[in-house]
Amino acid sequence: MKTRESRLLMLFCSIQLLVLVLLLILTWHWGWSVLAMLTLLFALLYPFGWLTYKFWQQLNLPLMLLSNYVQRLHSGEDAVCPNQLQQSGLLAQLSKDIDNLAADRLRAEHQQQSLALLIELMFSNWSQPVCVFSGQGTLLYANPASNSLPGIARLVGSSYTDLGFEMTPAGLSHHLLHKGWQTQSIRYEWQGEQYWLFTAFDISQPLQQAELAIQTNLVRVLSHELRNSLTPMSSMADTLLCGDNWQESQVRKVLERVRQRANVLLEFVQRFASVSQLPPPRQEWFSFSAVLEQCNGLLKAGDQLEFSGEGRCYADPELFAQMLINLVKNALEASEEGERKVWVRCYCRDKSQVLQVDDCGAGFANLDNALTPLYTTKTGGSGIGLTLANVIISKHGGRIHLGNLPGGGARVELVWPLP
């Protein structure tokens, strides 16, 4: 297929040929000789050829210059627009548009290089794996620590789907980084472009250390409880066995003490097992005052239990009754004898419910370890009451807060969402 320039050139040549034919016909009618007609033909061929060359040059030269100019810009050279293009209206505008596109591309490349340099400086020495994806999901950077990601390739330029990642409402995730890894993805904007920053933390060792600490603490508390119960029982049995003549009253006394220590130990085991056997909560609206009445059996003569706030509550009534009994029991035990008073308050704050249990005791001796399972500073305590409350409120999607009151006493605050 002929180009537009070739067609124009053929049209111009056709016009010139037509002019020559008309001149030859005219001279023929004038009676010119053949030699004269050929002489005229050869005389006109040179100017016509010169005009054809100039026409072709005027037609193609600006386009050739423009093409050369674009190629030099594409190769990254600092090209200057030719004068021939600056003098032509349409070509001058076209060259300006090309200049603007080239400048925009150069700025984009500089921004990309600046971003790559910034990312390299920030994350090259990180000990945690870091990957940077474009807004379209293309891997732009992966630091050296990302070599530790199990079974995940780090091919820069690949799509996140090809690398096994998937997009979730929380951001990027990978099915190989669930157990023993904590991942986080952040979407951010850099000079008008969207990017994803994906980080992964190997938490397998801290988890193992935490599990070992829990096991150590569990063994320590269980050993303590077992020793406290079994040592007196063993001592009383030895005393009884060393005697030759057993008296019925002495045997009954020893067996009664053995039964008391065994009941204490069984109660501890049952309370400990109840923490791990809690069912999922079945939340409903119920009368909080009715649940609080179950705590009246804990009160002795002179004890006070005051309640204020909302009379209705949305939670699992059975679990909350179990939790409230433990909290009120702890608050009464923390108060001084003769001045045992507990304040319970239930109210709504924003879109959450709040339950506060205050006492008039000495407060928490160690707030940092107060929620540690099986930790207690009370004589004869098991450290399960607050652990049970923490588990129950967590099952309701809430949190527990502990603190000491300025005027003395401790506060346990539970916050969980409203429906």
Structure characteristics:
single chain, 419 residues, alpha+beta, Beta-Lactamase, 4 domains, 5-stranded mixed sheet, 4-stranded antiparallel sheet, 9 helices, rod-shaped
User: Largest beta sheet, briefly?
Assistant: 5 strands, mixed
Give the proportion of residues in helices. 40-55%
SS-derived structural category: alpha+beta
Low-confidence stretches: none
* Series of H and E elements: HHHHEEEEEEHHEHEEHEEHEE
Query: What is the average per-residue confidence, as pLDDT, rounded to a whole number?
Result: 75
* CATH fold type of the largest domain: Heat Shock Protein 90
Write up this protein.
The protein is α+β, with helices and mostly antiparallel strands and 419 residues long. The protein has 9 helices and 13 strands. Strands 8-10-11-13-12 form a 5-stranded mixed β-sheet. β12 and β13 form a beta hairpin. α2 runs parallel beside α4. The longest helix is centred in the first third of the chain and has 41 residues. It is rod-shaped, with a radius of gyration of 46 Å. The two termini are 74 Å apart. The relative contact order is 0.05.
